[in-house]
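User: Quick sanity check before I run a bigger batch. Here is a single chain. Can you write out its predicted 3D structure?
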Amino acid sequence: MVKTGVVGATGLVGETMIKVLQNRSFPSESFYPFASSRSEGKTVRYGNMDYPVEIIRPEAISKGMIIFGATSANIAKKWIPMCIEAGALVIDNSSAYRMDPDVLLVVPEVNGHLITGYENIIANPNCSTIQLVAALAPLMRLGSIEWVSVATYQAVSGAGTPGLEELRRQQDGKSPDNRENLIHENIITSIGPPDKGGYCNEETKLMNETCKIIGLDFPVFAATARVPVRTGHTEAVVVKFDQPVNCDDAAAILAESPGIAVSESGSSPVDVEDTDIVLVDRIRRNPADPTVLQFWVLADNLRKGAALNAVQIAEKYLEKKNI
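Assistant: Done. Predicted structure follows.
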């Protein structure tokens, strides 16, 4: 049994982390919800008890605690060093340490074997990256990947509670503050402002994180968009292999892979909402090139794309420590 805390406990991802921890009967000896001063005085339900929300301070952290982070990267950089110094393990959902060469970036089904049980911080990947690599890694049994192209259709919940509230306002007929926030009956083709090269941050995360997790360096061509869907990210994926591949082989490999479900009928985000699966749909070999597979990948971005993956990292960590 371990002491467990969630930083950002009153946010969308933090609330989902608490839900997943309870659903999976995580071995918590005690629970500590942390958030900003705006949430101080609120309570969070965990098990059959209500816990007061606190601002995270050094005296609240002890050696051996597992702290789940559900804050922005800027905020994470302020509280994580304090937790590491106290001897806690931090599993951080922000981008703050993902590309640090000394920090593991983990999707347990793909590279969970790298966890030793002696880490002080493990990074949780971006939501769109998690579902992509969960599908890509098993397919490496078909041959070497030469390149990957992925176009994402990302749900509004990826922008947190403010994004969902804004979508609801617009659905009720209210106009957004500016055209850049118009999401109802619309598609936004850049999630965040583009950099000098024209790529938005969400695309850069996909390109960089995918190769770090899989452990190979191949080109990832990413295009990300926000769509007026509440929950559930959808990705159109194209994979180029070094040899001809077979759709039936790909489907069989994915069907026997942990956390993956395979469909042939055409799927939508409602099929994965509030589930723990990564759904791979409509696998097909491109008729112009037998070395190219195309398929769709869908997952609940709040669960497998964030909270569930973080809890699975903690479970793997405890397994390595024999707790």
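The CA atoms of residues 130 and 220 lie 14 Å apart.

User: Great, the batch can go ahead then.
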